[in-house]
Specification:
Layout (H helix, E strand, L loop, with lengths): L1 E6 L5 E5 L4 H10 L7 E3 L6 H12 L3 E4 L5 E4 L10 H4 L7 H10 L1 E5 L12 H9 L3 E5 L2 E5 L7 E3 L5 H11 L5 E5 L5 H12 L3 E3 L6 E4 L8 E2 L5 H13 L3 E5 L7 H9 L2 E5 L3 E6 L7 E3 L11 H8 L5 E5 L9 H7 L3 E5 L2 E5 L8 E3 L3 H13 L3 E5 L2 H4 L5 H7 L3 E6 L5 H7 L1
Parallel strand pairs: 2-14, 3-13, 9-10, 17-18, 21-22
Antiparallel strand pairs: 1-22, 1-23, 3-5, 4-5, 6-8, 7-8, 10-12, 11-12, 14-16, 15-16, 18-20, 19-20
Helix pairs in contact: 1-2, 1-4, 1-7, 4-6, 5-6, 8-10, 8-12, 10-12
Bound molecules: ligand EPZ.
Length: 430
């Protein structure tokens, strides 16, 4: 079993380069199913969610070639069966994107209900609403969603709430439909825009991505491209918070500052200095952290994927802070782990109430989901003593080379392989 072991208290320094956005790459990999020619992604991060996505495509018959560590060539022309293997589909949330992509190409799709980080109820009713509006019938049998459509006809879809996944899935299903589709009340996240840009670079006709209303004119053919995905705003935000938490001074490279606006505003409210440059930011603190109130919202509001990280920072801010989670039902599993480290943080309905303390102390803790794991890394970097983080597979789903990147910033952090003395291990040795 692997753990991340950190000896905290080292102020981070130097520079770190951000990888491509996980939540853009995942739907873009699924979208290669729609392409009529080979596609090359220049900067595919080596993280387990993406590796898994490639395995799904490959298991369906696609020709996937690693041209270099991060450069991947996709040729999905040989795909014939519009079905994702059941067990693979249940492993993560992004499998839902195969519904839209397979429906868009084959007018048929079979994908198990998705899995993903346990953040409370995560239905796909809005995805199905879009597919139905385009002319697909959907059934659920044995945990697998099946979609069938004689043909897909452009339509009006009004989402009941902002949903990143449903907005992107509707685009995937509509991009080759007959006629015009109008999507209203859309998610506006940067990764929604990047998926639209990727498809448009292949010849799709998608207008308005990044606004409430997206218009799509169906096309017949999508040509091959070489595409570079936008940097990951959440990975960048995670390193920015880590610099603030350790009293460090770092440069975060390969970012789009506009995508970081709400994170920068929040950090400045807490007393962190952020200097913006064309494709990088400098982050450092010059005094005590200040308590504040933060509420997660759909883009351009403060991102839910940064909620565990900013809450962790506020555990060291004098006074009372309140962080309210408006997007997911339950995204505070990290709080009990932070209490092991001396944080004064308590869940109260949709919010956490945080009383700043002078310091955190290292302890053995466990990640419960991707961003909770990132929060524990940040806490460990600031804590006095040693922190051992288990269940790091959650962290590896979304952070490329996190141990190397933090080591490069001066952190005392390493990946440790421990023997799992569980029953079956002892039996084997008996
Ligand atoms: C995407 O999840 C991201 N995952 C999440 O990132 C991110 O937190 C989320 O968007 C919000 O930004 C991927 O892109 C793989 P939603 P998604 O549909 O698409 C409800 C991370 O840490 N909803 O915008 O599942 C839903 O339950 C991960 O990188 C419905 O009710 O998020 C949630 O409460 C975690 N019905 C809210 O809407 C639906 O049909 C927002 O969900 C769809 C969603």
């Amino acid at each position: 079993m692997e753990k991340i072991v950190i000896r905290g208290g080292v102020p981070l320094s130097g520079s770190v380069t951000i990888s491509a956005a996980k939540n853009a790459v995942l739907p873009i990999v699924a979208a290669t199913i729609l392409c009529d020619e080979p596609v090359v992604l220049e900067n595919c991060p080596q993280i387990s969610d993406i590796t898994f996505c490639l395995k799904i495509l490959s298991s369906m018959g696609a020709d996937i070639r690693m041209l270099s560590k991060n450069k991947v060539r996709f040729d999905t022309r040989s795909l014939r069966i519009p079905k994702v293997p059941y067990e693979m589909a249940t492993a993560f949330r992004a499998s839902s994107y195969f519904l839209g992509a397979l429906l868009g190409r084959f007018h048929e799709a079979h994908v198990a209900m998705p899995g993903g980080c346990d953040l409370g109820d995560r239905p796909i009713d809005q995805h199905l609403k879009a597919f139905t509006a385009l002319g697909a019938e959907n059934t659920l049998d044995g945990g697998e969603v099946s979609l069938y459509a004689d043909k897909l006809i452009g339509s009006l879809v009004y989402f009941d709430m902002n949903s990143v996944g449903a907005t992107i899935n509707a685009i995937l299903a509509a991009v080759k439909a007959d006629g015009y589709t109008v999507l209203e009340n859309c998610a506006k996240e940067p990764h929604v825009v990047d998926v639209a840009n990727f498809l448009n670079s292949m010849g799709a006709e998608i207008m308005g991505a990044g606004t409430d209303t997206i218009k799509i004119k169906g096309v017949k053919y999508l040509k091959g491209v070489e595409y570079s995905v936008i940097p990951d705003q959440i990975e960048a935000g995670t390193y920015m918070v880590a610099a603030a938490m350790t009293g460090g001074d770092i440069i975060v490279k390969n970012v789009i500052p506009k995508h970081l606006e709400s994170i920068i505003v929040a950090l400045r409210k807490i007393g962190v200095t952020v200097e913006e440059f064309d494709d990088s930011v400098r982050v450092y603190t010059t005094g005590d952290l200040r308590n504040t109130k933060i509420r997660t919202m759909a883009h351009p509001g403060f991102p839910t994927d940064m909620q565990p990280q900013i809450s962790t920072l506020l555990t060291l801010a004098k006074g009372t802070s309140i962080v309210t989670e408006e997007i997911f039902d339950s995204r505070f599993a990290y709080a009990k782990e932070l209490r092991r480290m001396g944080a004064n943080i308590n869940v109260n309905g949709k919010a956490v109430c945080i009383e700043g303390v002078d310091k955190l102390s290292g302890a053995p803790v466990n990640a419960s989901d991707l961003r909770a794991g990132a929060a524990l890394v940040i806490a460990g970097l600031a804590a006095e003593g040693t922190t051992e983080i288990g269940n790091i597979h959650f962290i590896e789903r979304g952070y490329e080379n996190i141990v190397e990147k933090f080591s490069g910033l001066g952190a005392n952090i390493k990946l440790v392989h421990t023997i799992d003395y569980s029953d079956n291990e002892i039996k084997k040795n008996a």
